[in-house]
Amino acid sequence: MKLGLVWFGNDLRCADQNILSLAASEVDQLICLYCDDPKYKQPSRYATQGMSVLRRRFLNEGLNSLATGLEALGQTLFVSQQNAATSIALLLNELPISHIYSNHHCGWNEQQSLRQIANEFPDVHFHIEHGLTLFEPEQLPFTLVSLETSAREQSFPSSFSKFRKLVERLEVPQPTPKVTKLPAVSALLDKLVLPSIRPWKAEPITAIPTFAGGEEAAQRQLNHYFSTNLPSHYKEVRNALDGWGNSTKFSPWLAQGSISPRQILASLTQYEEEHGENESTYWIYFELLWREYFHWYATYYGKQLFLVGGLSNTRAYGSFYAERFRKWCQGNTPYPIVNACMKQLNQTGFMSNRGRQIVASCLIHELGIDWRYGAAYFEEKLIDYDVASNWGNWQYIAGVGADPRGGRRFNLEKQTEQYDPNHSFIHKWQGHNYDHQLDSVDASDWPIIPES
Ligand SMILES: Cc1cc2nc3c(=O)[nH]c(=O)nc-3n(C[C@H](O)[C@H](O)[C@H](O)COP(=O)(O)OP(=O)(O)OC[C@H]3O[C@@H](n4cnc5c(N)ncnc54)[C@H](O)[C@@H]3O)c2cc1C
């Protein structure tokens, strides 16, 4: 009797899921596990609060949907309240698990967890699939060996443009068909008393009209988007600060893995076959390549993704000003466009790509704050939080990442003129309401008395 364990992370889906197909063909009994990392229930080292209510709700919806999907295939979703390394080791110590199935997660902690478990349990077979990316690593014409495990390799593309030119014509594998049945839940689990690992209990969640987590909602958005003519105009409108149809809105579901980039590409290709390709349809692929770049970038650079100096060996410009950071988070800075974007983020868990660039540039270049505080705040709030895209984009704007131009400083007045000329976005999110004095103390901590 072979017993397998499927470890779910940011891949909460049953369709296009090689780890399930493999487990179905190789083992007799199976445990499906998701680890709800306790780090998200505590404040972070950047004084942010783990995970926002909106992000938590989106995750819970994703888990509800996965649990329902697995149930239809004869399985149960177990959720652990401990981190992955601890939870998996606990199960491996108690049960005769011979096979572990997981997708490659590019975050440093996830990579470390797997390495740690593989070292501790050398007899267990690990099957690592690549269900979160367009390409398989073997297809990539450059090395992915992490800096942490080998001497520095030069061939990882140093910019997105170099990466794109190397990969954009590679063939993207087709999504794999969904399994129709999974091996039964291990009966041994019934005899085990593990208070931290329980079957997932769906809690009723008040639906929000826009972003609902899970596989069905992801498919609905995919089908809806490609049933309109929006893909043929994507490039013309993608920089807008607001508006549901102005970008695909796939990112929250991609981040939770309730849809795969290969499923999106298959729909995009079908759309192009039916309606013709143009610069806009290509640009959707182009943006998915950005996501892809950051995934492999995080895989390659490991914990450098989180260092203040990023890939550069310098210390980045930036300090910490508690009052400025708090005001930036609340949308209470001297920059109405920034305030509007931050209020939108706080109220919806989402912000446009243009908005993210604007507020990141403000935090780093106008307020002089260490970029990692901004990245951590996004980690708390964004329902599409993705470790690689988030920290990679922040590094890029801070000039310590993959930007050949050494960082981006946006002129906030010009951005307002270009993207919100009649201030309708600013008014909608009340960006005009702010304290007119940014700092209440000076550099030596003396109070600054406002001029009357
Ligand atoms: C400072 C900063 C932080 C960011 N943090 C995240 C994050 O945590 N999670 C996240 O998914 N994206 C992040 N992005 C990238 C981008 O802003 C979002 O992916 C995009 O706004 C999501 O909206 P959409 O799905 O409608 O995108 P679309 O414009 O429709 O693009 C389609 C898809 O392409 C990918 N994509 C688009 N732009 C980028 C980009 N710059 N980098 C990587 N992938 C991209 C996304 O998967 C997106 O869903 C960040 C960007 C910045 C500047």
Name the CATH homologous superfamily of the largest domain: HUPs
Global Rg? 23 Å
Strands, count: 7
- What is the fold-level CATH name, i.e. the topology of the largest domain? Rossmann fold
Structural class: alpha/beta
Features of this protein?
452 residues; 7-stranded mixed beta sheet; binds flavin-adenine dinucleotide; 18 helices; Serine Threonine Protein Phosphatase 5, Tetratricopeptide repeat; 3 domains; alpha/beta; Rossmann fold; DNA Cyclobutane Dipyrimidine Photolyase, subunit A, domain 3
What does this structure look like?
Strands 1, 2, 3, 4, 5, 6 and 7 form a seven-stranded mixed sheet that branches. The model has no long low-confidence stretch (mean pLDDT 93). This protein is α/β, with parallel strands linked by helices. Strand 4 (97-103), helix 4 (108-120) and strand 5 form a beta-alpha-beta unit. The longest helix has 23 residues, at 279-301. The chain is built from 18 helices and seven strands. It folds into three domains: 1-132, Rossmann fold, CATH 3.40.50; 135-174 and 216-305, Serine Threonine Protein Phosphatase 5, Tetratricopeptide repeat (Alpha Horseshoe); 322-428, DNA Cyclobutane Dipyrimidine Photolyase, subunit A, domain 3 (Orthogonal Bundle). The structure holds flavin-adenine dinucleotide (FAD). Residues 238, 247-251, 254-255, 284, 287-288, 290-291, 294, 352-353, 356-357, 360, 378, 382, 384-386, 389-390, 393-394, 397 line the site of flavin-adenine dinucleotide (FAD).
